[in-house]
Amino acid sequence: MKLEGKVLVAQGGGPTAVINQSLVGAVLESRKFQQVTKVYGAINGVAGIINEDFIDLTQETTHNLEQVAKTPSSALFSTRDKPDEKYCKEMFDVMRAHDIRYFFYIGGNDSADTVRIVNEYAEISGYEFRAIHIPKTIDNDLTVNDHTPGYGSAAKFVSQAFIGINLDVRALPGIYIGIVMGRHAGFLTAASSLAQKYPDDGPHLIYLPERPFSLEKFIQDVKKVYDRYGRCIVAVSEGIADETGTPIAVKLMKHIEKDAHGNVNLSGGSLGQLLADHVKEKLNIKRVRSDTFGYLQRSFIGCVSDVDQHEAREVGEKAAQFAIWHNLDGSITIHRTGYYSVDYRLTNLHEVAGKTKIMPDEFINREGNNVTDAFKFYARPLLGTDMPSADRLRAPKVPKILKKE
Amino acid sequence: MKLEGKVLVAQGGGPTAVINQSLVGAVLESRKFQQVTKVYGAINGVAGIINEDFIDLTQETTHNLEQVAKTPSSALFSTRDKPDEKYCKEMFDVMRAHDIRYFFYIGGNDSADTVRIVNEYAEISGYEFRAIHIPKTIDNDLTVNDHTPGYGSAAKFVSQAFIGINLDVRALPGIYIGIVMGRHAGFLTAASSLAQKYPDDGPHLIYLPERPFSLEKFIQDVKKVYDRYGRCIVAVSEGIADETGTPIAVKLMKHIEKDAHGNVNLSGGSLGQLLADHVKEKLNIKRVRSDTFGYLQRSFIGCVSDVDQHEAREVGEKAAQFAIWHNLDGSITIHRTGYYSVDYRLTNLHEVAGKTKIMPDEFINREGNNVTDAFKFYARPLLGTDMPSADRLRAPKVPKILKKE
């Protein structure tokens, strides 16, 4: 029984370097099926569905789709709307009016939840409808999945950034603190560890939201590394908090306020700057620098993992196949089958929707200030086959003649 | 008359993505001359010369040198020391003790000045000595030179970053402010303009240290762009200042202090954050974001201009040839001979040492909030032959059926 009708694809949440691979995979695969009358794209994710802002991707050239696939960030644009029941009902009404029978939503765990609710309306209404969630998030925090499309490329950016920082801080020594995205899951920050090649390479310390952060311990850790190497490179998740769940930035602001007898910091100094100031003050080290990687890490063009690209493409294609070929609903999930190989399965939406995965204990060291080799083994293949590498001079020292001082 | 003796190479100042190309060019070319007895490298620039911290690069494998050439940031490490006369005299004494007859210093205008002073000591002392400055700076601010090695690769990073930001802010609209390095010269910030492909692409506004910055005009400019496109992307040099020369960050801090009746901002909120807060307050726009590109832009591995690589290599080789083959002193300078071709000349150290070039007037638009096509024409070839490109969907809109609201 072939279900005839239209396909609708949408993209939600933050951009990734490979989110358009999934879009193009779903579109091109859908266009191959005779029962698919049109392939639409919704502009601005779920918001575009409510507003009937559709474009007809059946009329897009295959070549341009391939060019778009290589371009980072949602080509259909995105939204931060998190639909409630009423919103989902409206979405469903619009889709029914347009004879949309297949809905593919590329996004994170909130997007999976949207797909779940819309699908329930279709079932209640007796409307024949297939809905599939296509995974995407640089946070790598979707349950069931071994990892998620978008993570590998962002991880590659973070790792390449820290390779450069290693070289920079080795040439001009000091302390460096890099703030990486990740409010709840530390996977992206942990990817900084893949910048290590030589035994004294940084990041020497990695702080993740999965572990409570202590300012006292942090200063001790930094001092220990600095005393040993004359430099210290630190990767910090933006989401670090203390044992009570208070964000460290808030905590440091309070310290400052207290010191200044009630004066308020109005510009909301960044976590990186606050940590750098704290280190300067406590350790009396002059050269302490920080960067907040910010938006660069999630949509940087030209820094993409080929493995991530391939997988993002396939989850898009798989969505079309499961829905149109097999008449199934669900969430596409990635499963590791070898080192390194993967397979794609269809998982019940309930198992992914609205849930968050964090770093497992075996990926974090006992002290809670670094990752384990198990994490590196897990993450390395996701960065792809063309990671650049740094090399050092190894020439022998020349004996001194004047031997002053 | 062949001058027999040792070669010494050193690197100074901030790192670039191609500074080791110049090092390896100078080392490999020097090793070809029979009158060169050894090729030394000074660890930590001029500081390493004072301390006799040399390594013997004659004993480095050619293959490893080639690997190091592809690695960003000074492989010999660097220093922020700016030698005075006494310091230069000490450097000269050490070099004489080690029978160093050829000195190549890779760096900016301060490094050129060091070379100049050391060379004067050699002349006064009647010591046969050739000293050459090899240009390097991401700021692109050396006089005489059409451009400088290191600039093209940093410019490529900035341009690629803004391509991603364009896509990101188009998918999730708002205002974005990116702070780029450059205290006195705006060349690196101006390179953001090369991210523009489509007519509505950003950065829509570019503010350079060459023009006084007015907060009122800035808000007007941003509003105009935002009203037109529903988004606004801004590139700002870290060095912007008002007509009196007061840095804008300092000025904004004072605004905040005044508003808060004397409360002091202790964490020194970044320029980007301060500008973003200012826009939020004045235009009442919710989504205003900022990034400070920071250290990522000068040593990011895997984002390098091939043109920059070739030129950095050649200025290193040329230094060795001018000094050893022709017995000359000076600064290697790059001259544009076609579109796009260059030639290298030897320039008197006095013409480069301690001097700073800024953006010429014809590169900046009349309003002082963007660059001209003349700049883009100038800068584009320096980014190299493999700049990635962003593509957009062009599918037609679907007519609405429900036409709600």
UniProtKB/TrEMBL annotation, chains A, B:
Protein's UniProt name: Pyrophosphate--fructose 6-phosphate 1-phosphotransferase
| Swiss-Prot/TrEMBL keywords | Cytoplasm, Glycolysis, Kinase, Magnesium, Metal-binding, Transferase
Cellular location of this protein?
A: Cytoplasm
Q: Which gene encodes it?
A: pfp
Activity regulation details = Non-allosteric.
Q: Which NCBIfam families match?
A: PRK14072.1 (NF010675)
Which domain of life, per UniProt? Bacteria
The active site is formed by D139
Q: Please report which protein family the annotation says this sequence is part of.
A: Belongs to the phosphofructokinase type A (PFKA) family. PPi-dependent PFK group II subfamily. Clade 'B2' sub-subfamily.
* Pathway listed: Carbohydrate degradation; glycolysis; D-glyceraldehyde 3-phosphate and glycerone phosphate from D-glucose: step 3/4
Q: State the reactions this protein catalyses.
A: beta-D-fructose 6-phosphate + diphosphate = beta-D-fructose 1,6-bisphosphate + phosphate + H(+)
